């Protein structure tokens, strides 16, 4: 059975990918399965650059196929911030709640129709043979003034999907996995996966 390493230590993200890879009959591992890991400096200016940096580093370290993602939130009224800094927007050592509070604080007074935002996900696959593929997926929505819902992680509780009248955090996993930015990127990745797997 082929193996693929998902380049994340985020248990929530690892579970999402495990679910996505079920039909492929592939053994999915994450960085949580490895004790020894070199530090990777993600200093790219785009989601795509960061995903490739991660995938290349881990593929060369473990000599296995790696899928890395870099994802985050872009808010129009904040000129695209938090962007590639989404996970550490409130500072190193801060958590999802701190990041959400910072975004809400920066959007105070911004009217509803100017709170447009999108989740972005860049997926990069790198194989030990040097094959590389990068795709980008998005999910459009807007930012609420308060948190709603208890599912998901990250900015999900403030990311509102107008066509569903729900936040990402109010969706069951099965529904989120179909319409998320990660799902959109994965659909674009599938033609390449068919060849690689």
TrEMBL record:
Cofactor note: Binds 1 Mg(2+) ion per subunit.
Catalytic activity from the UniProt record: XTP + H2O = XMP + diphosphate + H(+); ITP + H2O = IMP + diphosphate + H(+); dITP + H2O = dIMP + diphosphate + H(+)
Cofactor list: Mg(2+)
Residues annotated for Mg(2+) binding in this entry: 70
Keywords for this protein: Hydrolase, Magnesium, Metal-binding, Nucleotide metabolism, Nucleotide-binding
Name the UniProt record assigns to this protein: dITP/XTP pyrophosphatase
Listed NCBIfam families: PRK14822.1 (NF011397), RdgB/HAM1 family non-canonical purine NTP pyrophosphatase (TIGR00042)
Extent of the signal sequence: none
Assembly notes: Homodimer.
Family to which the UniProt record says this protein belongs: Belongs to the HAM1 NTPase family.
Active site per database record: 70
Residues that bind substrate: 8-13, 71, 153-156, 176, 181-182
Keyword Metal-binding: yes
């Amino acid at each position: 059975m082929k193996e693929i390493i998902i380049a994340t230590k985020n248990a929530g993200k690892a579970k999402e990918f495990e679910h996505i890879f079920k039909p492929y009959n592939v053994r999915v591992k994450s960085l949580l399965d490895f004790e020894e890991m070199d530090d990777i400096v993600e200093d790219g200016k785009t989601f795509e650059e960061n995903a490739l940096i991660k995938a290349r580093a881990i593929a060369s370290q473990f000599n296995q196929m790696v899928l890395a993602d870099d994802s985050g939130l872009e808010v129009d009224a904040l000129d695209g911030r938090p962007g590639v800094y989404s996970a550490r927007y409130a500072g190193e050592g801060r958590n999802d709640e701190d990041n959400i509070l910072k975004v809400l604080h920066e959007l105070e007074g911004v009217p509803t129709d100017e709170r447009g935002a999108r989740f972005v996900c860049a997926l990069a696959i790198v194989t030990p043979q040097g094959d590389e593929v990068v795709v980008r997926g998005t999910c459009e929505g807007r930012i609420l003034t308060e948190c709603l819902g208890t599912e998901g992680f990250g900015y999900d509780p403030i990311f509102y999907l107008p066509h569903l009248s729900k936040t990402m955090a109010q969706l069951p996993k099965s529904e989120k996995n179909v319409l998320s930015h990660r799902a959109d990127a994965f659909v674009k990745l599938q033609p390449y996966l068919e060849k690689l797997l």
